[in-house]
Write a structure and sequence with these properties.
about 80% helix; mainly alpha; about 290 residues; disordered C terminus; elongated; Rhopdopsin 7-helix transmembrane proteins
Length: about 290
Amino acid sequence: MVLHGKKQRTPFDVYIVTLFGSNILYTAINHPLEILTAQYGFSWAGEAVCTLSLYNTYVISAVTVHMHLLISVSRGWALFWPVTYKQRHTFTVATLLGSGTIIYLHTVLLPGIIVDAALYRMPVNHGCRINMEAQHGWYMFITVVLYSVPKLLIPACYPVLLWKTIRRTNNLTRRIGWRSATGTSENSTDKASGSKGQSRPFILLTLMTLCVTICWIPSMVYYIMIGYISPIKLDTFHRIATTLFGLRVLLDPVFFCLSFRSLSAPFAVLWKKRAVRPRINIEQPVY
């Protein structure tokens, strides 16, 4: 449905599709490994599977975080510089931004994972994780620069984008009112399509910002604490952070469906049918 809706596709959808694809890939690798390792541990799989698990945990997760950040950046670009956004933010530019981000993340993260597998890999019998002590500088760099900063920037930018959206909506309302008063009002269909075109991406941004704040930030705080304060026991907090982190795999696909009209239309129709109640006409008795 998404591929055939060419008239409804925009460059903004490139980030949504990449985000959805990274979630699918993460789930396809992570969940089977979690089930198997919960039963048998990593000793059955060896270092190759451990390396695959680390690649999924660090690289694929980083792609997901940065796609969320690109969504926020593109919304800011559209709100503050709408003319250049419409002129320059083409499918080619969006594809280059997404591809460049993925290449950048691989360039920074893969060397550390490869060096860990070649030189510092701990026995997989005790679990599969990066040897933070052996590469402490690299580990703290990626934790802060690639994970913590983007996760904090996304909710930090939201109030600014909210302010700009409200201001732009108010200006549009005043402009429409002025044109109506002077007899040069716009077509009602154009008004409706314009308001929907502005509100839909912002609603999606709001939902995804909540997803990042609730699902990602607790795990970020946990890994920063174990990186800076060691040893430390945070078993309860770790379970809570892990549970919230797992929810994002369920929430992002829902937001993906809501971002495309062809996918969200059936849900909207169903909601309207449930909301509309049949009117019962009670005739007054005639005496």
